[in-house]
Amino acid sequence: MITLYYDHNSYASMKVLVYFSEKKIEYNSHLFELLKQEHILDETYKLINPKGTVPALKDGDIIVCNSTDIMEYVSKKYLPQSDVYFDSSISLAVHNFCKQDESLHDPHIRTLSYYNLWMHNTKSVEEKNRILEIAAKHPNKDRGAFLAKAVRGKFTPEEIAIANAAITNALTDVEQKLANNKSDFLFGKKYTMADAVCIVRLLRLRRLGIKTELLKDQSPFTAAYYERMKQRSSFNKLLN
Ligand SMILES: N[C@@H](CCC(=O)N[C@@H](CS)C(=O)NCC(=O)O)C(=O)O
Questions:
Q1: Quick one: which of 15, 123, 209, 229 could link to 127 by a disulfide (CB 3.0–4.6 Å)?
Q2: Ligand 1 centroid from CA 181, angstroms
């Protein structure tokens, strides 16, 4: 059986978790707590993902390290040809939406998540120093630098403003897509990877307390979509 390396609270992991739940993909769980830096401290994880990020998937000798790539790999290999994944009339648009979300996540949603959710509570000097020491050992230097910056609370007002603007654009795009598609889903008439990505995006932005009308009445299609997605059993995968 495939093994999924993930953290329940990781944005990129959540996309895969909700998608696997929708598509009834079974897997062994290898859990990490990112906030305890377990993925950095576990030396053997470097052999799975040298970049030291989650999610990652191991299927026999094959390792896939990236949310969109994991969903595509599993869809191609394990879903029947009748699945909407193989619908060539929407597959490129679905792929592009997922890839664009990765660029929204890193750096924008990641910056706001660390700023508003993960690092905002006062940490003791000892705890900060502990995290800084671990950050220096991150297999990916940029990620280590980001973690150090986050724990020092060094995000600039410009970075926060740029992140908020990117999020506003992304939400406008979702509203337009839903308005044009006239279906319960983002693309076509069935649940795709893009829906897994979009519900994770909407949930995270709510958790971040993003104050934009785009998450409320001003975007009726998105509001109705969010309520529909919440009713699906896969949504439970996102709550813990
Ligand atoms: N583009 C990648 C992003 C992966 C990513 O940034 N994962 C985060 C969690 S959401 C992570 O592992 N962070 C830990 C770190 O940077 O040390 C994907 O979509 O899988």
A1: 123
A2: 30
pLDDT tens string 11-32: 999 999 999 999 999 999 999 9
Q: Separation of 11 CA from ligand 1 center, angstroms?
A: 8
Binding site membership of 148 for ligand 1 (Cβ less than 6 Å): no
Distance 199 CA to ligand 1 centre (A): 17
Q: Which atom of ligand 1 is nearest to the CA of 146?
A: 16
The amino acid at residue 106 is: D
User: pTM for the full model?
Assistant: 0.95
Structure tokens at 76: 């191609």
Whether 215 shows a pLDDT value over 90: the answer reads no
Domains of the chain in start order, with CATH, are: 3-85 (3.40.30.10), 87-233 (1.20.1050.10)
Reduced to 3 states (helix: H, G, I; strand: E, B; else coil), residue 50 is coil
Q: Are 71 and 98 in contact, with CB atoms under 8 Å apart? A: yes
Phi and psi at residue 159, to the nearest 5°? -60, -40
**Quick one: pLDDT band at residue 116, thresholds 50, 70, 90?**
confident
